[in-house]
Amino acid sequence: MVTQATKIVKTKMDSVRERIGIIDLARFYAMALVFYGHFIEEFMLLKNPVGAVQYKFIYSFHMVLFIVLAGYVVKEQDSEMGVGKFLKQRFLSRIVPFIFFTILMMVPTIFLDGKFFGLVLPSAEGYAKGLLWTAFGIPSFCIPSWFLLLIIGVELVHYSIFRFLKESNSRLLIAGVAFYVVGYLLNLKLDIFNPLKGRVVGWNYFYIHEAITLYAFYLMGIYIRRKRFLDKVSARILAPGAVVAFMVVLFTYQLNTGPFNFSIYNYVVIMFASHGHMFFFPLTAIAGCALILFLAKITPGQKTMVWLGQNTLILMCLNGIFYHYINPGLAKWVLDNLSGSAMMVSTIGVIVTLASLSLCIPFVFVFRYYVVKLMSFFVALEEIAIFFEVAGCCGLPSNVETYT
Question: Which of 34, 119, 231, 380 is placed for a possible disulfide with 126 were both Cys, Cβ 3.0 to 4.6 Å?
Answer without folding.
Answer: 119
